[in-house]
Amino acid sequence: MPDTAMLTVDAALDAMLSALSPLAPVRRPLADCGGAILAEPLVAQWTQPPFAASAMDGYAVRSADLASGSEALRLVGEAAAGHAFDGLVGPGKAVRISTGAPVPDGADQVVMQEKASREGDAVRLTDTARPMANIRPAGTDFSHGDRLLEAGRCLSPEAVALAAAARVAALHIHPRPRVAIVATGDELVEPGEPAGPSQIVNSVAPGLVELVRIWGGEPVYLGIARDRPGAVRDALRPGRDCDLTVTVGGASVGGHDHLRAVFQADGGRFAFERIAARPGKPTWFGTLEGHPLLGLPGNPVSALVMARLFLRPALARLGGSVANAVFAQAPLAVALEANDWRETYLRATRDEAGRAAPLSNQDSSALSALVQADCLIRRPAGASALAAGEPVEILPLLDRI
Ligand SMILES: Nc1nc2c(c(=O)[nH]1)N[C@H]1C(S)=C(S)[C@@H](COP(=O)(O)OP(=O)(O)OC[C@H]3O[C@@H](n4cnc5c(N)ncnc54)[C@H](O)[C@@H]3O)O[C@H]1N2
Ligand code: MOO
């Protein structure tokens, strides 16, 4: 049954986002800006190219000299990339030029070398007059003072290259949020460690570390807190230096789930305590002396699906942008039963025709099914039964390779 501490996914998301604010911008050298969100527009500090440049290896000439279509011109020098030809290209003259070199004064066409034959300092060109052919005028790409990117844009690798081309050596960016990750539970061992008879491997934390990285944050893994209040408190403490703490497990109602009790005893305030979602019901969020904590359930699928719905938008908000889950539509390959009061995310695959079908294993501990899925089908709370062919909302798992 619904209860008052249990919010819908949308209401919980709103509650979480309104408790988070973007981190203060910092100025960083360009080499440290990749993947960050711009806190100021990117403004070109010069014109690119800064001079009219050749787009081909060949000969810089006056187009008027090519009227007959097969002219012999006299070679008077060379313009190489990084080394301009200082003289003038007069009538009947040509300058050897390489791609990227400044086009010398007087020339208004570059003839590619495939259309040239040379004998000593005579060069015969088989090209017609085409003023400005193979020349990139100054500012072909952008001009000094152009606003190349607005604040709020992510600095993709291509955008870093653009900033470099625009002679911008440092930028104000929203820093990458530092995210402390704490796993909880006596049953957990780290990958590669020996496991006792009742133990399993901590699989969620390594997955979260990767997600935080992919989503533009800096993961700070703090290890496994054992099931004692003191151990939980000790494990959480170093996370205060980060911008957000994400905990895994200990979120439900079991006698060994100490996380919520420690959080509350230390003065933490919940923004929400549970959500009406399947998987992921025990997901919670709150702040402790201003420090935000997102509590993910221990079941690996629950944790990683909820990370997509909550951790990603949280990271985006701290980093100065928005990245709420974006749903698409797909027709169903099979019929679906009516849904109950919990918004449900079904692990699903799409066939060649793009029709989505849930995988048979929907257990919230089954990582193999999550990895097999290429999308999640979203079933709203109270959704009625659907026939094959009817449309459903899907969340593509885009960062899957
Ligand atoms: N009586 C009830 N029991 C449970 C309820 C409930 O409402 N009433 N909710 C269930 C749901 S839904 C979920 S989800 C789980 C989540 O519980 P917790 O967040 O407290 O997680 P744990 O109890 O610590 O662990 C659950 C499960 O996941 C395994 N686990 C935990 N951490 C990891 C990790 N880092 N890597 C891999 N696996 C992990 C753990 O061993 C358990 O098997 O509670 C239900 N119970
Ligand atoms: O919400 Mo639990 O995540 O259904 O397994």
From TrEMBL:
Record GO terms (molecular function): metal ion binding; molybdopterin molybdotransferase activity
Catalyzed reactions: adenylyl-molybdopterin + molybdate = Mo-molybdopterin + AMP + H(+)
InterPro entries recorded: MoaB/Mog-like_dom_sf, MoaB/Mog_dom, MoeA-like, MoeA_C_domain_IV, MoeA_C_domain_IV_sf, MoeA_linker/N, MoeA_linker/N_sf
Domain MoaB/Mog: 180-317
Keywords: Magnesium, Metal-binding, Molybdenum, Molybdenum cofactor biosynthesis, Transferase
Domain of life assignment: Bacteria
Pfam family for this entry, one: MoeA_N
UniProt record, GO biological process: Mo-molybdopterin cofactor biosynthetic process
Cofactor: Mg(2+)
EC class (word): transferase
EC code(s) of this entry: 2.10.1.1
PANTHER family: GEPHYRIN, MOLYBDOPTERIN BIOSYNTHESIS PROTEIN
Family (UniProt): Belongs to the MoeA family.
Protein name: Molybdopterin molybdenumtransferase
The species this protein was found in: Maricaulis virginensis
Lineage of origin: Bacteria, Pseudomonadati, Pseudomonadota, Alphaproteobacteria, Maricaulales
